[in-house]
Amino acid sequence: MTVVTLGAHILDVLARPVEGIPDGQDTVVVEQIRVTAAGAAAGTAVALARLGNEVISVGAIGDDDLGDLLVAIMTRNGVDATGLVRRTADQTSASILPIRPDGGRPSFHVPGANLTLTAGAVGPGLLSAAGVVHLGGPDVTFGLNDPAFFEMLAAARRTGTVVTMDLLSNMPDLLAGAAAFLPHVDHFLPNEEQAAAMTGESDPEKAARALLDRGPGTVVVTLGADGSLVATAEGVHRLPALPVEVVDTTGCGDAYCAGFITGLAHGREVLEAARWGTAAAATVAQGLGSDACLTGLDAVLALLA
Q1: Which N-terminal stretch is annotated as signal sequence (predicted)?
Q2: H helix intervals, the chain
Q3: 77, 66, 147, 149: which is closest to 109 by C-alpha?
Q4: Structural domain containing residue 90
Q5: C-alpha span between 287 and 188 (Å, rounded)
Q6: How crowded is residue 143: how many other Cβ atoms within 10 Å of its Cβ?
Q7: pTM for the whole thing?
Q8: Contacts of 203 by beta carbon, 8 Å cutoff, 6+ apart
């Protein structure tokens, strides 16, 4: 099954462990520095490819060295990156993440070319030919908030394409715009803060039910160390997080989406697909960066044994 990931593409530079920013010109020696493909589209695309899926990624990046490196990383991981459009007036979106010893991840971020993505970047028939279309970060690629794009999604769904969606930010104004996509989505996977901001409900179960009323057939709210909550018309189920030693939480949400989509692609029901997502997120949490420790589907599913 082909998966099209569409949306936010970011280059992450990560260092760990970082306990503080040194004064003046001082240098701190760290254990590890990595550069990875990240963002709710690019990070999910790499994770999907490592889990054995055929992946095409669509987005906007700069015509710069950062963009060259991002394309190289994605291509090396088996992602078809020919759907990325290059912008000369905008840099590739990038983040610098100093990872704390407890796995926390403050960031320095440039939105860059992600803000320029429009429906014109999506090739004719691409979405309808896919088994799954994953909207990764439509809150920051708000050029897709367009009736023409919604009709593309509707046409794809009529031919059997499944649409999933994840978000990137926690900013209320951006999340309010993302609500327009909900009637066109089959499975929505926000985190707890995003679900609360979109609904005004601090209880994740109430938030999930409110989001279901806006169109998706499934709402999966990720809860960090508390696992996740899966809500459908049939009821709400909670899944615990898997007990692993957390090194870095970067990309855990993207990995969860990739595991969930992989489960769907293998014909699993929603709750079992969410367990696959849980295992993928737990795998990534054990290393540095959004693709850490993902060596294949068998190793991920071994965590569930």
Answers
A1: none
A2: 42-50, 65-76, 126-129, 147-158, 172-178, 192-199, 204-212, 252-265, 270-284, 297-302
A3: 66
A4: 2-20+29-304
A5: 26
A6: 17
A7: 0.96
A8: none
- Name the least confident of 49-53, 67-71, 98-102: 98-102
**Using CA atoms, how far apart are residues 19 and 36, in angstroms rounded to an integer?**
21
79, two tokens: 């992602």
Task: Give 4-14 pLDDT, tens digit per residue.
Answer: 999 999 999 99
Number of domains in the chain: 1
CA distances from 214 to 156, 159, 180, 211 (A): 19, 22, 9, 5
Cα gap 178→198, rounded to integer Å? 9
Angle between helix 42-50 and 252-265 (nearest 10)? 50
Joined tokens for residue 150:
């919604």
pLDDT in the model for residue 156? 97
DSSP state letters, 103-165: S----EEE-GGGGG--GGGSPTTHHHH-SEEEEE-TTT-GGG-SHHHHHHHHHHHHTT-EEEE
Residue type, 165: M
Q: pLDDT tens digits, residue range 44-60?
A: 999 999 999 999 999 99
**How many residues are present in the chain?**
305
User: Can you tell me the distance from the alpha carbon of 43 to that of 119, in angstroms, rounded to the nearest whole number?
Assistant: 21
| Nearest alpha-carbon partner for 42 in 107, 110, 92, 98 | 92
Q: What percent of the chain has pLDDT over 70?
A: 100
